[in-house]
């Protein structure tokens, strides 16, 4: 059996197993992929400044999110259409997260019902990511169902009023439901394992949306609703509407500017996610980890304009060392997007568990090498901005 030593190994295995259409959907960014590449490269701007001769015999990566324990400052973040990579992928992701002691964030565009995800992890920490469509009754239904199922935190995604331009999907003829062109059929024949699983498991459906719309699953219709019927009128004042329907914590996801972070604070959000949607929306933006320090500094400057907030970040996280850097730069936690998907796409449940185990192990090793016995020891003093290398 091939030994997986890092997340990149799972990425390569996922690439071998998936058809080009499915892998490009997982991997691709918007337009020329500038933001996607920057997300990953930006972590290399900082190097570590370790301290030695410190007692790290009892090093722990544990933290809390709103008083609830987590094994590390990480959560498995929201990703849509995961059933394209493995049958019932959302349940597998949620179960692996729960087993690892981490929260799992279920996407509005999930291919499993939120009720089924809860049944798969009766005691797991579950959060709901929410898109708001023109018919707000859909979002209200989603929130009502999630509350009943014991989801704790709501993650309102605000950076997707329209879908970004994804050239790879256009080239591959990616449409929902999938149309079996001669090229796709030939690709399926080259990937028999994936094709057999899709055949036996059935085509993925946007089941959560279908349930809240009150219709039978219809992938073409419900995918169109997500891409063409988002609520373009959504504004900061609508956080009050969200609060009326959600009693738990509310995070605003998709923040890249200090001004927007302050708006979220002033309107009473419990936290934000500094994010550019994995580089899948605007083709060229700051990497979230680049925007993180200035946003954290602005929000901590006397707490002006609103209550204290938790700041999360995502984008390009592939190593436990990346998590350590993000926390040292002020993040309360990191959302893992593609990394767990590489795991599930490569090996199903074993793959997700393997990715999370790797990242937890890497984080603890990094902390010990830095001389950090706890997450609280990950401070800006443990980082140094690196000079550009000469070619």
Automatic annotation (TrEMBL):
Residues 1-388 form the FMN hydroxy acid dehydrogenase domain. FMN binds at residues 78-80, 107, 129, 157, 253, 275, 314-318, 337-338. Its cofactor is FMN. InterPro entries: Aldolase_TIM (IPR013785), Alpha-hydoxy_acid_DH_FMN (IPR012133), FMN-dep_DH (IPR000262), FMN_HAD (IPR037396), FMN_hydac_DH_AS (IPR008259). The active site is at 277 (proton acceptor). Belongs to the FMN-dependent alpha-hydroxy acid dehydrogenase family. This is Alpha-hydroxy-acid oxidizing enzyme. It comes from Pandoraea captiosa. The lineage of its organism: Bacteria, Pseudomonadati, Pseudomonadota, Betaproteobacteria, Burkholderiales.
């Amino acid at each position: 059996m091939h030994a997986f030593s890092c997340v990149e190994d799972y990425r390569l295995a996922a690439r071998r197993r998936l058809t080009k259409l499915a892998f490009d959907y997982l991997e691709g960014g918007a337009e020329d992929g500038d933001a996607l590449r920057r997300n990953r490269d930006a972590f290399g701007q900082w190097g570590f400044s370790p301290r030695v001769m410190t007692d790290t015999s009892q090093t722990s990566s544990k933290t809390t999110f709103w008083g609830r324990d987590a094994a590390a400052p990480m959560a498995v973040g929201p990703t849509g259409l995961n059933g394209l990579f493995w049958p019932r992928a959302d349940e597998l992701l949620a179960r692996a997260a729960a087993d690892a002691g981490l929260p799992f964030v279920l996407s509005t565009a999930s291919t499993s019902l939120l009720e089924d995800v809860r049944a798969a992890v009766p005691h797991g920490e579950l959060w709901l990511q929410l898109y708001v469509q023109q018919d707000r009754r859909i979002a209200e239904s989603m929130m009502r169902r999630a509350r009943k199922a014991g989801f704790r935190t709501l993650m309102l995604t605000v950076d997707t009023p329209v879908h970004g331009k994804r050239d790879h999907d256009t080239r591959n003829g990616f449409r929902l439901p999938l149309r079996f062109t001669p090229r796709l059929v030939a690709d399926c024949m080259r990937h028999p394992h994936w094709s057999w699983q899709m055949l036996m498991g059935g085509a993925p459906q946007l089941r959560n949306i279908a349930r809240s719309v009150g219709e039978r699953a219809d992938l073409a219709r419900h995918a169109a609703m997500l891409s063409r019927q988002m609520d373009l009128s959504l504004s900061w004042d609508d956080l009050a509407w969200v609060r009326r329907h959600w009693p738990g914590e509310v995070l605003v996801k998709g923040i890249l500017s200090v001004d927007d972070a302050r708006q979220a604070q002033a309107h009473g959000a419990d936290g934000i996610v500094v994010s550019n949607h994995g580089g899948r929306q605007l083709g060229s933006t700051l990497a979230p980890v680049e925007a993180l320090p200035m946003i954290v500094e602005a929000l901590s400057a006397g707490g002006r304009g609103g209550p204290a907030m938790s700041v999360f970040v995502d984008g390009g996280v592939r190593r436990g060392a990346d998590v350590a850097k993000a926390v040292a730069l002020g993040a309360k936690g990191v959302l893992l997007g593609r990394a767990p998907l590489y795991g599930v796409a490569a090996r199903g449940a074993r793959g997700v568990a393997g990715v999370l185990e790797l990242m937890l192990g890497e984080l603890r090793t990094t902390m010990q090498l830095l001389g950090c016995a706890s997450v609280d020891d990950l401070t800006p003093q443990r980082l140094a901005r690196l000079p550009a290398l000469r070619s």
